């Protein structure tokens, strides 16, 4: 049964993997006297490795960021092997120092805490021993290389719930979860039944975008894809060890995040459904402030799906918790529309009159309006509900027509429908140019990040491929992320002066369109080298990085990219103003410490 799951391409992949082990073993014996030797490898493995082709001069050294960055002649240093999972803003040793100042009762320690520059490493994060080029989508949904995510904790504690099992050199994901031991498909069908009185599926209730809180290995998201539902999944980096790394290795969109003391990095009113299956969030605590964050993120008539013991167990404190949840959600004017097996579903009714009544009775407070054209970034949670009259209501079309939606927020940002149309056309053309320049098979690409996504045009141009895109809107720019969500796409705000909350080696393609110049000017100036280092951390070996920017900047990057062990080629393409501009295509080499 196991072997029948493999097609011929997988066999080829295993061969490449084995071949790589053989090569590194061979080279390793040649140079085993030194731990500072690196070998290149990849799809064009030389048949007879020679010292000349394969050895790089970069040194393995634990180096912290200094006040000013100078890159050694020998190339950027390589971090020691034990840092192969380094995530700067979720670094346990740094957190230990901060811990006394953090509110652990609200899980503040699980939020992103980025060290000052001098407390960050400035070296390339190496792959673990035996790292292999990841298995391709769609097979990766069910199988990933064991050595790429060398953590057995999850299989040990969650094996019984069918999250993940070990199979020789692979991890196998049967598609289970704590509340869907028998597979996510049946669970998703039940949610469809519950929201439609047994007459339809989730798609027919208008669910296009889902936020999955505490997503585990993101099987829920993987099994919503056949319904053409896009999911933004997140979980903290916690004791369940590397859930998000598993999700991304599988080729499922996810990021590290937590619902604790700050607003999530997503714009208000972006999801038709927020889902929590045993997500270990204390919704009833602190006056329901976390439910109020869910209310902010839900679109009008959105659903909150909650599968957890307080729904079905009457023992211990569960009854009290349930009663508190009922009181809080009633005050927020949510309607409990279904309760079955282990799941309860609420509908956010969006009735201002009800909210105003309850505010008068002191059951909740109404939020002061905020400026929606600027990103909500790292703002504290708000213990209040925003009235819907504060938004321009825009009825969005069904999924099939959503990619072309002109979001009302664009009007507020001064982007006319004509500018928006031109932008969409421009990106269609650019993407076809990129494929020509890169000369790759698009099936080699699954996890993509647009680091400066603007209106999401790049992502729209990729939407006919089996690819998912994390659309990032820099927190120091306008809130175009709302427009991206209105098109049915997913993404997050981020400040690129800091590392992103993801594991190393998680993306196949990074796109940086006029991103670096943004960070060279204005209030936030941070160094190009720090951003390049972060790109190197999150891109997979043999992954591509496309950089477009001002001439001088691109030339500078072309000069330093080889020191990051990237292959580079420079091209010219027309920009939106029809002027020629440089395009740098970089590819991270597949190297390893031997
Ligand atoms: C995986 O981790 C275990 C213990 O954490 C270690 O003994 C083993 O060498 C690791 N395997 C690889 C391939 O890194
Ligand atoms: C959903 O409803 C249909 C039609 O009533 C039924 O056949 C099916 O078994 C239900 N699915 C689940 C998982 O409850
Ligand atoms: C299902 O039908 C009942 C009775 O007609 C109604 O009260 C309930 O609101 C309906 N639920 C949904 C989710 O439509
Ligand atoms: C829920 O509200 C009712 C009525 O306002 C109140 O009597 C009860 O104590 C509340 N329950 C909890 C658990 O807060």
From TrEMBL:
Protein name (record): Methyltransferase
Which Gene3D superfamilies does its entry note? Vaccinia Virus protein VP39
What phylogenetic lineage does the species belong to? Answer: Eukaryota, Viridiplantae, Streptophyta, Embryophyta, Tracheophyta
Q: Is S-adenosyl-L-methionine included in the keywords of this UniProt record?
A: no
Its placement in the membrane is given as: Single-pass type II membrane protein
Q: Where in the cell is it found?
A: Endomembrane system; Membrane
This protein's UniProt keywords: Glycoprotein, Membrane, Methyltransferase, Signal-anchor, Transferase, Transmembrane, Transmembrane helix
GO CC annotations on file: endomembrane system; membrane
Q: What is its EC class?
A: transferase
Q: Name the Gene Ontology biological process terms.
A: methylation
Keyword check for Membrane: yes
- Output one GO MF annotation: methyltransferase activity
> What is stated as this protein's family in its record?
Belongs to the methyltransferase superfamily.
EC number(s) on file: 2.1.1.-
Q: Where are the transmembrane segments?
A: 12-31
Q: Which Pfam families match?
A: Methyltransf_29 (PF03141)
């Amino acid at each position: 049964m196991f072997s029948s799951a493999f097609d011929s391409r997988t066999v080829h992949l295993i061969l490449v993997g084995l071949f790589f082990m053989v090569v590194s073993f061979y080279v390793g014996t040649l140079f085993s006297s030194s731990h500072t030797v690196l070998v290149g490898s990849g799809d064009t493995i030389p048949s007879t490795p020679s010292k000349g082709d394969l050895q790089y001069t970069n040194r393995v050294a634990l180096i912290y960021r200094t006040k000013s960055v100078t890159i050694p002649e020998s190339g950027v240093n390589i971090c020691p092997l034990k840092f192969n999972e380094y995530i700067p803003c979720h670094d346990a040793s740094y957190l230990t120092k901060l811990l006394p100042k953090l509110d652990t009762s609200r899980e503040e320690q699980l939020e992103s805490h980025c060290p000052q520059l001098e407390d960050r490493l400035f070296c390339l994060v190496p792959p673990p021993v035996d790292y292999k080029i990841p298995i391709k989508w769609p097979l990766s949904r069910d199988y990933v290389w064991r050595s790429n995510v060398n953590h057995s904790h999850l299989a040990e504690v969650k094996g019984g719930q069918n999250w993940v099992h070990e199979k020789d050199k692979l991890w196998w994901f049967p598609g289970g979860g704590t509340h869907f031991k028998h597979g996510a498909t049946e669970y998703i069908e039940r949610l469809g039944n519950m929201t439609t009185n047994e007459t339809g599926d989730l798609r027919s209730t208008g669910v296009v975008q889902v936020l999955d809180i505490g997503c585990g290995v993101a099987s829920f998201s993987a099994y919503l894809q056949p319904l053409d539902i896009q999911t933004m999944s997140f979980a903290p980096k916690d004791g369940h060890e590397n859930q998000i790394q598993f999700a991304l290795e599988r080729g499922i969109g996810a990021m590290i995040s937590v619902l604790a003391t700050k607003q999530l990095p997503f714009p208000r009113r972006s999801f038709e459904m927020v889902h929590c299956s045993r997500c270990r969030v204390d919704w009833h605590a602190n006056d329901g402030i976390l439910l109020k964050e869910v209310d902010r993120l839900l679109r009008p008539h959105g659903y909150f799906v909650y599968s957890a013991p307080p729904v079905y167990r009457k023992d211990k404190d569960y009854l009290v918790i349930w009663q508190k949840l009922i009181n809080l959600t009633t005050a927020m004017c949510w309607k409990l529309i279904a309760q079955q097996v282990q799941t309860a579903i609420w509908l956010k009714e969006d009735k201002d009159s009800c909210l105003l009544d309850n505010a008068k009775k002191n059951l909740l407070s109404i939020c002061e309006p905020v400026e929606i054209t600027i990103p909500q970034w790292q703002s504290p949670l708000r213990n209040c509900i925003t009235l819907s009259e504060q938004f321009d209501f825009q009825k969005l079309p069904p999924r099939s027509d959503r990619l072309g939606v002109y979001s009302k927020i664009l009007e507020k940002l001064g982007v006319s429908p004509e500018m928006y149309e031109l932008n969409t056309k421009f990106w269609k053309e650019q993407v076809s140019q990129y494929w020509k320049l890169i000369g790759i098979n698009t099936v080699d690409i699954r996890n993509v990040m647009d680091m400066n996504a603007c209106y999401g045009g790049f992502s729209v141009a990729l939407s006919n491929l089996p690819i998912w895109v994390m659309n990032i809107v820099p927190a120091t720019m306008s809130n175009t992320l709302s427009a991206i969500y209105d098109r049915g796409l997913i993404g997050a705000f981020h400040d690129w002066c800091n590392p992103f909350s993801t594991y190393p080696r998680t993306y196949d393609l990074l796109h940086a369109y006029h991103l670096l110049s943004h960070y060279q000017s204005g209030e936030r100036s941070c160094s190009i080298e720090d951003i390049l280092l972060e790109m190197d951390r999150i891109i997979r070996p043999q992954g591509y990085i496309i950089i477009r920017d001002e001439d001088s900047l691109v030339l500078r990057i072309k000069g330093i990219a080889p020191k990051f062990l990237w292959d580079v080629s420079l091209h010219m393409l027309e920009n939106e103003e029809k002027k020629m501009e440089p395009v740098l295509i970089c590819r991270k080499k597949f190297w390893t410490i031997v």
